[in-house]
Design brief:
The complex is a heterodimer. By secondary structure, chain A is α+β, with helices and mostly antiparallel strands. Chain A contains 13 helices and 22 strands. Helix content of chain B is 21%, strand content 45%. Classes of the chains: A alpha+beta, B alpha+beta. The structure holds FE2/S2 (inorganic) cluster (FES) and fe (ii) ion. The site of FE2/S2 (inorganic) cluster has 10 residues of chain A, from loops.
Chain lengths: 474, 165
């Protein structure tokens, strides 16, 4: 509980003079030849930047919607947002998934007001138009008596489909613009890292029932960065780590759940070889990772032999390692203390909503599931012992992001000298070709991984500005 | 020895509220049995809170008082920025109802609201919901063997900690 609190978005004030592509581009001081990369603080605070992000990133490119396993049966649906637009994903009677604008064709009322459910027919509460689970208009109340003109009769009254909708291994994405690369191309080699999460079970991934939503009074990119920020871990979360020590000392008496880090802490200082690092991909996707001895306190441990047999030891070790995967711009699969799927929803330049779930391999044992959930709650919940410290620090950062002096942030330089585009045994083992990799010990804590966020961000926004002509006078 | 009276129930619930608001953490912990369950469910959807902590997500679920002692330790440690300063709370409990009581055990339902003020952000919020206390007689006193905290407004502004519930 930290900010003046409203339950709805405050939105952003009207832009006072839209930014030109050149002005936008100048907010990222990216000079590879000088080894310089700096970010201007107003990217976190300027409402004009926020409007551009909504238009040219969230509302005109691939955005994560949900998991197919959230909609197992015909007529299941879930609602979400793409940028500022309400969206509903539905499974039709044939089992096909589709995504629609969750807005009635008549006067725009929300068709599915709830987070999820199962319905054959969606009847609009306002004037009673109805739609089936394939989005087809089934009835217009009083149509015969309505004396509609010719034009109306020839129009489609079906729910508006998202121009692009796609699935990769159960992860559903949609785009409000048709002018996007294929989902495969957009995700690129980040797909191989999605595989590491999905392959933990033959049946794939599911979300544990129950979701947790919280907000913080800070920009959405603070969350984007934090997920791939190894540098903060020991300084932001000492209270959590010390609680783990207390529990380890009590030897499991008193009902405490064991941590995956009971035996080996891959973030702890000291030379260990190349156990930690980052991979950066095109389009802003990144992985921050560490590898350690698979822990017998890991919920996956019951499957270690099977996974080793199927995927080999190296790949199996990756599944047990810490992997924080960001699929730009709005979803993160964080596997560290437990396993989380989080959806980032920007509400305003200085307000972000986080929808968070415990994700888990389908079919794990009851004991593994119980442990996973306990490990999750302690670390990931806004009522737990780690995430609250992150979220409060986002707000502390945001507080300084309107300053007219010292406006260039210095948090993007660590690791730059270790970044390499060349393949290495780890990338080869995973069959990936990242744009940049950093390999090192636990103390390197690469920050150059953020570069791909901001390069993709800059390229998407400048291209958007140029195409739409807003502020494009040069 | 007789069963828990309505007045006993109120006294215990109000005492717990005061101990939390006055940050008398050790006395608060002492209200709980060693094997106490402390549970705040999450929500599955608009209508249903999660009901089965081993297969569904909770906001907080602990079996064993030492887990609560860990949370108290974290709060006092100075190592958590989210707990520095500790926020100011005022718990208000009402609608206390003894549902069942024997010599040894009792179940008490109530409604609660906690006003929370964050002196660092100059911001405030009210969390509210319903409690279920399962009480157990230990010697000459009643202790909390299980507390279920249903949080009705689960759209959480940044942080909610056990002492705000
Ligand atoms: S807005 Fe849906 S029927 Fe009128
Ligand atoms: Fe963190």
């Amino acid at each position: 509980m930290n900010g003046p609190h409203t339950l709805i978005s405050r939105g952003s004030p009207p832009a006072a003079g839209a930014l030109t592509a050149a002005e936008l581009s100048a907010l990222i001081d990216d000079r590879p030849q000088d080894g310089a990369f700096r970010v201007h603080r107003t990217v976190f605070s300027d409402p004009r930047v926020f409007d551009l992000e909504m238009k040219h990133i969230f509302e005109s490119g691939w955005v994560f919607l949900g998991l197919a396993s959230q909609l197992p049966r015909p007529h299941d649906y879930l609602t979400t947002t793409v940028g500022r637009q309400p969206v509903v994903v539905m499974r039709d009677s044939e089992g096909r998934l589709n995504a629609f604008l969750n807005s009635c064709r008549h006067k725009g009322a929300i068709i599915c007001p709830l987070t999820s459910g199962n319905r054959k027919l969606h009847v609009c509460s306002y004037h009673g138009w109805s739609y089936d689970s394939a989005g087809r208009n089934r009835a217009i109340k009083g149509r015969a008596e309505g004396a509609y003109g010719q034009a109306f009769e020839t129009e489609s009254h079906d729910l508006a489909s998202l121009p692009r909708f796609g699935e990769y291994r159960g992860l559903l994405f949609g785009s409000l613009s048709a002018d996007v690369p294929s989902l495969e191309d957009y995700l690129g080699d980040a797909r191989k890292l999605i595989d590491l999460a999905v392959d933990q079970s033959n049946e794939g991934l599911e979300l544990v029932p129950g979701y947790v939503t919280f907000t913080f009074n800070g920009n959405w990119k603070l969350q984007l960065e934090n997920c791939s920020d190894a540098y903060h871990f020991t300084s932001t979360h000492p209270s959590y780590l010390r609680v783990l020590d207390r529990r380890a000392a009590s030897q499991g008496s008193g009902g405490a759940i064991r941590s995956v880090w009971d035996n080996d802490r891959p973030f702890e200082s000291g030379a260990r070889g190349a156990t930690n690092g980052t991979f950066s991909f095109a389009n802003g996707h990144v992985l921050n990772w560490s590898i350690s001895q698979p822990s017998d306190a890991h919920p996956l441990f019951e499957r270690i032999e099977e996974l080793t047999r199927r995927f080999g030891e190296a790949r199996c070790n990756w599944m047990f390692g810490t992997r924080n995967l960001t699929l730009f711009p709005n979803v993160q699969l964080a596997e560290n203390a437990s396993s989380q799927l989080r959806i980032i929803r920007p509400l305003a330049p200085d307000k972000t909503e986080m929808l968070t779930y415990c994700m888990a391999p389908i079919g794990e044992s009851a004991e593994a599931r119980r442990r996973r959930i306990r490990q999750y709650e302690d670390f990931f919940n806004p009522s737990g012992m780690a995430t609250p410290d992150d979220a409060v620090l986002y707000e502390d950062c945001q507080a300084g992001h309107q300053t007219p002096i010292a406006e260039w942030l210095q948090g993007y330089s660590r690791g730059a000298g270790a970044a390499s585009a060349a393949p290495n045994p780890l990338t080869e083992g995973l069959g990936i070709a990242p744009q940049s990799s950093v390999l090192g010990g636990p103390d390197l804590c690469d920050e150059s991984v953020f570069h791909t966020y901001y390069r993709s961000w800059r390229d998407r926004l400048t291209r958007g500005i140029e195409r739409s002509g807003t502020g494009a006078a040069q | 020895m007789s069963g828990l009276t309505h007045q006993d129930a109120e006294r215990l619930l109000y005492l717990e509220a005061h101990l939390l608001d006055e940050r008398r953490w050790d006395e608060w912990l002492d209200l709980y049995t060693e094997d106490a369950v402390f549970w705040t469910p999450a929500w599955r959807n608009e209508d249903e809170p999660t009901a089965s902590p081993d297969t569904e997500l909770s906001l907080i679920y602990y079996e064993g008082r030492s887990n609560l002692a860990d949370r108290v330790w974290r709060l006092r440690s100075g190592l958590s920025v989210a707990s520095t300063p500790i926020q100011r709370t005022a718990h208000a409990i009402s609608n206390v109802l003894v549902e069942a009581a024997t010599d040894q055990a009792a179940k008490v339902k109530s409604s609660w609201a906690t006003h929370v003020f964050n002196p660092r952000r100059k911001a405030q919020h009210v969390f509210f919901g319903r409690y279920e206390h399962d009480l157990r007689r230990e010697g000459d006193r009643w202790r909390v063997a299980r507390k279920k905290i249903l949080l009705l407004n689960d759209y959480i502004p940044t942080v909610v900690d056990f002492y705000m519930l």
